[in-house]
Amino acid sequence: MSITLQDVEHVAGLARLDLSEEEKDIFTGQLNAILKYVEKLSELDTDGIEPTSHVLPIANVMREDEVKPSIDVEKALLNAPDDEDGQFKVPAVLD
């Protein structure tokens, strides 16, 4: 598979990019180099290799939920610019 100048122009048009002729040539070469490198991966023997979503065997890294004491309401509201009935009071944003 190869990227042509027309492919680059098509994608640039979809992305609404105004590329100079020099940029089009540069991107064509760069994209072809990327595809050439990716084609090397097809040379690898992957028989017997299980597909993975991550390179390392990671188990659930989330900690267990634990009930812990929370901060007192009075402490939480100490630095609040305004409070009312134990809640932060903010300016209304809806009419």
From TrEMBL:
UniProt keyword terms in alphabetical order: ATP-binding, Ligase, Nucleotide-binding, Protein biosynthesis, Transferase
Reactions accelerated catalytically: L-aspartyl-tRNA(Asn) + L-glutamine + ATP + H2O = L-asparaginyl-tRNA(Asn) + L-glutamate + ADP + phosphate + 2 H(+); L-glutamyl-tRNA(Gln) + L-glutamine + ATP + H2O = L-glutaminyl-tRNA(Gln) + L-glutamate + ADP + phosphate + H(+)
Biological process according to GO: glutaminyl-tRNAGln biosynthesis via transamidation; regulation of translational fidelity; translation
Record-linked SUPFAM superfamilies: Glu-tRNAGln amidotransferase C subunit (SSF141000)
GO molecular function: asparaginyl-tRNA synthase (glutamine-hydrolyzing) activity; ATP binding; glutaminyl-tRNA synthase (glutamine-hydrolyzing) activity; transferase activity
InterPro entries: Asp/Glu-ADT_sf_sub_c, GatC
The protein's assembly and partners: Heterotrimer of A, B and C subunits.
Protein family: Belongs to the GatC family.
Protein name listed in UniProt: Aspartyl/glutamyl-tRNA(Asn/Gln) amidotransferase subunit C
Originating organism: Paenibacillus beijingensis
